[in-house]
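Reply to dn_fold:

You asked what the input looked like. This is it:
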Amino acid sequence: MVRDTRIDLDLRGRAVLNVGEPDWASVGKALLKVLAVTAVLCLSFRVVDKVAWLFIDDDERMARVYATTARVANPDKRLSYGQSEWGGLLESTYTLQGEPRRIGPSKGETEYQITENVFGAVRAPSLDGPSGSLGTAIDAMYLDEDDAVFDGLRAEKARKAMDGLPQSLEAVAVVEFKDAMTTERLVGFQHRHKICGGEDLSYLYYPSYYDDSADPPSQNAVVWNRGMAKEPSWQDLTYQCASEPYVALTEFRRWVGLLDEKDDFEAFGLTYGWLTEAAEDGLVYGLVVDGWQVADLRKLLDDPEVRIVHLADVAFDLG
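and this is what came back:
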């Protein structure tokens, strides 16, 4: 410690060491230097560790975690294969190809980039959740869920709408259950309606959520199909028939088990906690179907376990 020190003479002429008050300004400067060096070292270790991670596990980690998360949060898009791209020394970039989930000929694919920097922050423009008619259909789930009269009116309106359509039309739709289904109940439902798993059927493990008093105030729906975790996307995948819900939930839980609390899902409108809760609960609130005929969806609407069928897009598939 720095002190104001001087030597004086006593009455007999002897030297006396006189120690004054510490020089607090010098002490403060020394302490700040120590803290600054410590902070720089900690930051350096973190950056080095992150850079090493980006170079060593870039492709696999980005594909397994963030590319899959993009598909889970954006069921309104058919996001197919992806590839890693050079993003510089301090960033890792993964690019997905995708197109809107609509009926009819493809109008071409769009590139969607996911970028992670050395601090773990993720950017994913246009991948922050479903939009368009399918996004609206998902957000409409479980509105006024305790209002039986409102449910009845909506269901009757949906019946009239579907009865007025050519039954051979194909549709993208959301099938909303009256109550969240356990895997066992869902297996029975699929067996009863002869529904098999496939790329055209995804399970809605959590509906979207909004509460302006919560943090975060909103979270996207959690929609799952086993093909979402498949990289590259052209790998063979065998779906089950009525028993697909068992396999799908097992794979969803396995994928969630790969995630880490430090992963950044904000760009996708999700959180680690939201995903882990959905996996733990294992309940299915509805189905997202792609390319099903209106006639088949109309039959589901008569099942007492179905609240309503939300049509997002209908057309003759000329593609």
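The chain has seven helices and 13 strands.
Hope that clears it up.
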